[in-house]
């Protein structure tokens, strides 16, 4: 069996024609029959496949039944077809993640697949695939990772309170001058209280921007957008929830591939053509893996005099340029490509504080080239 694809994109490699969403993929499936076959079906499928390690998922599937019946003598059969290209994740090949669009032709009978052949084609992002480019940039595994982080913080607070209670219990006989007072209980109580104070400070400083912990940040989460090559400027407002001295504030632009994989993956899963991409199907919690394919310091400048007092507003302006060859942000099951500005606050003797501002890098929409040099708005 041979599959020929007719396409209108000039100057492209015929082995990998290039399309954008809403294009029409027109071609012909050519089947050469060498011997009679009965109860035969010819099925053509268009879909995308994402692969990350041993995890594979697919979507955007459309199936056409080209033929069903008997081939009673050797012959060459031609089956024209037409597919509409839907919005979806664009073709991408990175360090951890590969996304391909394929045409898959199968000749099968009631009991088995007699012949199968795939032909890849390239899908370029056009700006219409909003649910994939904006999408949900936090798959289930990333939500699970955040939940695990919050659980660790809760356990740290429980440990802090227990240490504080133990310290008070050990100090009480010495303070009240009652029986049981001893220098060892005094030292143990002081050590427990000091350790509780250290854990409280560490947990407080490394928490999220909750109203009473760490720093507040404005805006907390916004839908920032930019295009490759854009010069970007937006405002960050930080509010310390305690009196402190800030040494410096820095920022960096990061591009990240992130995938989840099952920690306990059966050996045969690596060979399965349609391995499950659902975290619920795993025997253990999924593990998130990240690869930073881009990282660059960006300019961040104070817009007014900085005030270290509690709840005082400190305003900064971030300026940067999106790389002209930046891959677009997108999400597909079990994987995503994301961009973010990481703001790093170096705070005196306190542990450092960091926060990410998600950036959606999207293709030009509606042909508006260079519509705005400040694509991100605060």
TrEMBL record:
- List the InterPro entries hit by this protein, alphabetically: Arrestin-like_C, Ig_E-set
> Per the UniProt entry, what species is this protein from, by scientific name?
Bradymonas sediminis
TM ranges = 154-175, 181-200
Residue span of region Disordered: 264-285
Under SUPFAM superfamilies, the record lists: E set domains (SSF81296)
* Keyword Lipoprotein attributed: no
Name under which the protein is recorded: Arrestin-like N-terminal domain-containing protein
> Which controlled-vocabulary keywords does the entry list?
Membrane, Transmembrane, Transmembrane helix
């Amino acid at each position: 069996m041979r599959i020929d694809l007719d396409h209108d994109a000039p100057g492209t490699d015929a082995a990998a024609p290039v399309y954008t969403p809403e294009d029409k993929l027109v071609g012909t499936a050519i089947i050469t029959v060498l011997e009679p076959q009965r109860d035969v079906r010819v099925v053509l499928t268009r879909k995308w496949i994402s692969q990350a390690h041993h995890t594979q998922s697919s979507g955007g599937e459309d199936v056409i039944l080209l033929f069903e019946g008997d081939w009673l003598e050797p012959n060459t059969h031609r089956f024209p077809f037409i597919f509409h290209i839907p919005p979806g994740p664009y073709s991408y090949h990175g360090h951890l993640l590969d996304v391909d669009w394929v045409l898959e032709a199968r000749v099968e009978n009631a009991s088995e697949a007699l012949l199968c052949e795939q032909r890849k084609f390239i899908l370029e992002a056009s700006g219409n695939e909003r649910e994939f480019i904006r999408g949900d940039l936090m798959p289930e595994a990333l939500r699970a990772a955040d939940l695990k982080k919050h659980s660790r913080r809760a356990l740290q607070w429980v440990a802090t309170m227990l240490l504080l209670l133990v310290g008070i219990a050990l100090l009480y006989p010495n303070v009240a001058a009652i029986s049981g007072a001893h220098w060892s209980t005094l030292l143990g109580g002081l050590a427990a209280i000091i350790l509780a104070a250290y854990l409280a400070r560490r947990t407080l400083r490394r928490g999220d921007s909750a109203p009473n912990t760490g720093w507040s940040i404005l805006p907390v989460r916004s839908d920032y957008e930019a295009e490759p090559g854009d010069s970007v400027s937006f405002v960050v407002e930080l509010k310390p929830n305690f009196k402190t001295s800030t040494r410096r504030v820095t920022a960096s632009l990061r591009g990240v591939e992130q995938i989840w994989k099952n920690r306990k993956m059966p050996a045969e899963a690596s060979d399965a053509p349609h391995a499950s991409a659902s975290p619920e199907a795993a025997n253990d919690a999924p593990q998130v893996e990240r690869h930073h394919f881009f990282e660059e310091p960006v300019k961040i400048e104070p817009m007014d005099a900085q005030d270290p007092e509690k709840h005082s507003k400190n305003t900064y302006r971030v300026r940067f340029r999106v790389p002209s060859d930046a891959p677009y942000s997108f999400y597909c099951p079990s994987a995503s490509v994301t961009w973010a500005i990481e703001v790093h606050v170096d705070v005196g003797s306190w542990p450092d504080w960091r926060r990410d501002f998600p950036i959606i890098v999207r293709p030009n929409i509606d042909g508006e080239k260079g519509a705005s040099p400040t694509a991100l708005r605060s």
